[in-house]
Specification:
The complex is a heterodimer of chains A (111) and B (244). Chain A is mainly α. Chain A is built from 4 helices and no strands. In chain B, the strands form 2 sheets. Chain B has a 5-stranded antiparallel β-sheet with strand order 3-2-7-1-8. In chain B, strands 4-5-6 form a 3-stranded antiparallel β-sheet, with helices on one face. The chains are: A mainly alpha (111), B alpha+beta (244).
């Protein structure tokens, strides 16, 4: 049931995004990118927990927001230091996404 | 009730994420399409260069047309008999000297090329390439030997022709040209060649520097006319002045 609502939300979000008149300026693009990646990671984490039956809204929301804030913060610090620290964010979230997806696959396909 | 709240929050978070994701994708797409300022600048410069080149070509065509007109007028004047033979021959001499007509006759062709190999380690490669001064030395030697018309790589050498290093090429009559250089001179082939090849002369010096010089005596060679325009902004014949 909850997954259905999630999918509904995603569909609504995409529709709104297509209609949205504004654009994200180039300078902020990297922050939004890491934030989106962090969000996707949290979403997959939540899905995994849901499949496992250990989903808790508090943890999900807190993880979602803290992931995003941390990702943006790290990227910002990297900009200040002149080092591409956002690459770490990309690698960490990327790896976790693959891990989460792997676990989901194992659980859903019962391999 | 609690269940519904959970669903709603999840739905909203998903929506927010998907929304940001979509807008981001659209923004990236658009940002990539918008050209950078430097790219625009380069394009602009390219365009104005093309424009100028076009203009240049049109002007050259116009110049050719004028030259043909002048030839035509001269022919008509000659026919009319209103202009004497003497003046006509004087005009011809002046034209040969000024380089506005192509000329042919016996002479020499001097080929100069940079040394094919790079100098052994440590040596300054600048010493082994042809410089403007080398060309000028050859020109001077040829003039001394009685050359009546000169050209470098097809560019007629006029009284006001510059020979100048411009980066790694030479600028002659404002045209860029690079090694190998062929200098043509019309005059007594024997005299011209020996002027260059005499012991301790320029050819000897160049050989030591690693510049290859090849002098060929020819019974017939052609030197093209100067293609640009000749206009004088400052110099004008002084009134009551002497005449040759």
């Amino acid at each position: 049931m909850m997954v259905l609502f999630g999918l509904l939300g995603i569909a609504a979000g995409i529709a709104l995004g297509m209609l949205f008149p504004g654009y994200i300026p180039k300078e902020l693009s990297i922050y939004v990118a890491v934030a989106v990646l962090a969000g996707i990671d949290s979403l997959l984490g939540g899905l995994k927990a849901y499949v496992k039956g250990t989903f808790k809204l508090r943890i999900f929301v807190a993880g979602f927001l803290s992931n995003i804030i941390l990702a943006i913060l790290v990227t910002y610090i990297g900009k200040l230091l002149g080092v591409d620290v956002y690459l770490i964010v990309l690698i960490v979230f990327g790896t976790r996404m693959f891990k989460n997806i792997a676990e989901l696959r194992r659980r859903l396909l019962k391999f | 009730m609690k269940k519904r709240g959970t669903n709603l929050i999840v739905c909203m978070l998903c929506a927010a994420l998907a929304f940001t994701f979509t807008v981001q994708i659209r923004s990236v797409k658009r940002n990539n399409n918008v050209k950078g300022a430097d790219q625009l600048r380069a394009e602009e410069l390219q365009k104005s260069l093309t424009n100028e080149t076009d203009k240049n070509r049109k002007l050259e065509q116009q110049l050719d047309q004028y030259k043909r007109d002048i030839d035509e007028m001269r022919r008509l004047m000659g026919e009319d008999g209103t202009i004497s033979e003497a003046v006509l021959s004087q005009l011809q001499n002046a034209e040969v000297l000024a380089g506005t007509v192509a000329v042919e006759g016996p002479g020499v062709s001097v080929m100069m090329d940079d040394m094919g190999r790079m100098p052994a380690g440590g040596a300054d490669p600048n010493q082994f390439v042809i410089h403007d001064s080398d060309i000028l030395q050859v020109l001077n030697e040829l003039r001394d030997a009685g050359a009546e018309a000169l050209s470098i790589n097809g560019q007629r050498v006029l009284a006001n022709t510059e020979v100048r290093c411009a980066g790694n090429v030479l600028s002659i009559n404002n045209e860029r040209t690079s090694a190998p250089f062929e200098i043509r001179a019309i005059g007594d082939p024997q005299k011209l060649a020996s002027g260059l090849l005499m012991r301790g002369g320029v050819a000897d010096t160049f050989q030591q520097l690693g510049i290859e010089v090849k002098v060929t005596q020819l019974q017939q060679l052609e030197i093209p006319a100067y293609h640009g325009g000749l206009g004088f902004e400052y110099a004008k014949p002084s009134e009551g002045g002497g005449r040759s």
